[in-house]
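Lab notebook, bench 4. Still working through the backlog of constructs that have no structural model yet. Next entry is a single chain of 297 residues. Request: give me the structure tokens for it.
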Amino acid sequence: MHRPRPVRRGRGHCCRCDGVITPHATVFARNVRTGPASKSRLAIGTALSAELLPEDIGRPAMVEKVAQAVQAAMRDAGIDDASDVHYVQTKTPLLTIDSVREAQSRGHDVACEVHDSMGVSNGTAALGIAVALGEIKPPRAEQICKDLDLYSCVASCSSGVELTQAQVVLLGNKAGAGGRYRIGHALMRDALDLDGIYGAIRDAGLNLPARPRAEDLDGRVVNCFIKCEADRRGTLRGRRQIMLDDSDVHHHRHAKAAVGGVAAAAIGDPAVFVSVDAMHQGPPGGGPVIAIIDAGD
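Model written out:
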């Protein structure tokens, strides 16, 4: 794995870099090297789910299929204990007009409108992650994308029209994995939660003072990965927010720019990964934050 570097030219899909977020890439690669069993280091696993049908999106069938794929990714990483898993990225299908018609031709309906399916697909995948890792019990159909007290602390979910399965990339710490890197996670309780960012860095294994600053990180943070969205209650620490009412700038861009600025200030580097549309990914108004550090040996 390499430290993030500015990307000046290249091709590929990336998230918007709103606010101060710098375009960059963090590259993950697996090799056959091992290390001492006394040291836990970063390990990666991947998996694909069973086919996700249009009528599965937003329903318990999708939760179950994603959960099975997450457990397969754990096995691929060689991680046995769910508490050692700190980051699960998924990409899952969206609904399209054609896929809705195809489902209807087989006598099935779908759970939501096409334009709502990104958030619904992301949120349902997050619940699958949470079920796989034992964070929650399998949700009832009426809880999916409704009961926001159900969430995963390690999920980062996205979706696209090009898929018919869930793609899963799982990162955690494994004894004997080798390498210099460790991963940890925590929660940002809201968009201003600096302590959540430093909590993830501590969880990865870096000792910090009680009130840390960017200078205390000593260049050992490889990157932070954060999920966020505007608080649906329209408030932040008792103050009214207008992100959800702004007719000029979408609330996703407001939220990403704000949280990206907070994260950049916390670690002293604007090359941070911030993703939005965070239903069931952390508490309402907050989200998971994951940190990878260079353990130095």
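Notes after review: Residues 60-77 form the longest helix (18 residues). The chain has five helices and twelve strands. Flag for follow-up if needed.
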